[in-house]
Amino acid sequence: MRKILIIGNWKMNLNTSEASLLVHRLAERIKIHRDIEIVLAPTMLTLQPLSLQIDRRKFRLAAQNAYHRDEGAFTGEVSFTMLRDLIHYCIIGHSERRHIFNEDLPTIRDKVSAAVRNDIIPILCVGETKTERQDGETKQVLHDQLMSGLANLTAKEVGQSVIAYEPVWAIGTGDIAPPDKAAEAVAYIRNYIRDVFGTRPAQKIRVLYGGSVTPDIVSGYLEIPGVDGFLVGGASLNYESFSGIVESARKWQRRHAEVENER
Ligand code: PEP
Fold it and tell me: Could you identify the atom of ligand 1 that is nearest to the CA of residue 95?
């Protein structure tokens, strides 16, 4: 069974002392779980101090973004090469980067390649806007984002990556994708990986759901075949809700293991 993966995307929130306090509170509440991996994605500014503070058996770090070139005259940017000793993961292609910062498909493809080249696991975010959904274009959008985002990776590298299915209309809105729609999208993603890269990467790759996740929806979404965890935005800024999400996942996993054992 794939490990459950829960990622907290803090976006552009929390200064250094606030971030440190949140990690402290989370560490008090969250135990080490062998079968659940918890990743925190703070701002670039706080990655370094948090890397010294965190218990690495409990938490791993992700960047929210990085630049695809390794070094040079790129004012204001930070490269994957500079981050490689600090982080395990990097969020790439988040809808806020696609839509607010106009990151296009080739930019996202180059970032995914740069992450892998630097031994950082890409968390490639894919998902349709409300209009695309209403126009029946969800699968086409997922197809284009996957085809381009994974274009330079080998089958083995794809298997080690993470895809976050995040319908844009569900991010930060409180509107959660109906489970049957999320199930359809996740199945489409895994089938795409299987058809293009083969069965093994399709079985290995972790696929997350993201979009207004709260502790209440965790067990229902973990029941969806092929969902391996969550990319959490707003709820990850509050230690009670984020640790509640981890706790709900732990309870679901325990129940699931019991049911499997009885079979
Ligand atoms: C996100 O930022 O990736 C996200 C899913 O945000 P939220 O949980 O707030 O919808």
Answer: 3
**Ligand 1 neighbourhood includes 93 CB (under 6 angstroms):** no
Name residue, tokens 């929130």.
Answer: 13
Q: Full-prediction pTM beyond 0.85?
A: yes
Q: How many domains does the chain have?
A: 1
For residue 240, the CA-to-ligand 1 centroid distance in Å is 16
- Reported as a single tens digit per residue, the pLDDT across 6-17 is 999 999 999 999
Residue nearest to atom 7 of ligand 1 (CA): 233
Count of all residues that appear for the chain in the document? 263
Rounded to whole angstroms, what are the CA distances from 163 to 48, 68, 80, 139, 172?
A: 25, 19, 18, 15, 19
How high is the pLDDT of residue 257? 84
CATH of the domain at 172: 3.20.20.70
For the record, the structure tokens of 5 come out as: 């993966």
Q: Are 160 and 177 in contact (CB under 8 A)?
A: no
Q: Whole domain around residue 158: which residue ranges?
A: 4-262
Q: What pLDDT, in 10s, does the model give residues 46-60? A: 999 999 999 999 999
Q: Which pLDDT score, from 0 to 100, does residue 241 have?
A: 98
| Torsion, CA 101, CA 5, CA 154, CA 115, rounded to 10 | 40
